Amino acid sequence: MNSTVKIAVFFLVVLLVGCKEEEIIVPSDLIAEEEFVGIMVELSLIEATRSLHASKEHKSDTHPTIFYRQLWEDHHISQDQFERSFAFYRKDLDRMAVIYEQVALTLKRKEDDINAAKRALKDTEDLTLPQAPSE
Angle at Cα 134 formed by Cα 133 and Cα 135, nearest 5°? Predict the structure, then answer.
């Protein structure tokens, strides 16, 4: 076999081995997708709060890991379990896009609910404030 054919065979083997799909192993403690979305929503809120406090230069004695520990505790999971689940979902880009879309929609609904509550409170305050006498 001449050297050109050997090189071509070598590159073909490398290409075929390199194109082999990675075996996807489902973690035994995989967080269900619906719960995972909820956890991602809460993580987004934690990060937004941290960002807001950092931008306003609030100096808090509360270390951010406390919020994460509380989140893991509230959902009865560990950080490692979350990271394994995140790594699993991340391997499927289409699925992860759907998860992030659900997170964004949930956050938008929460924002809309807060804004509606603020408007209702303002309307209630406007009704209870004494009116200035007409001249």
Answer: 115
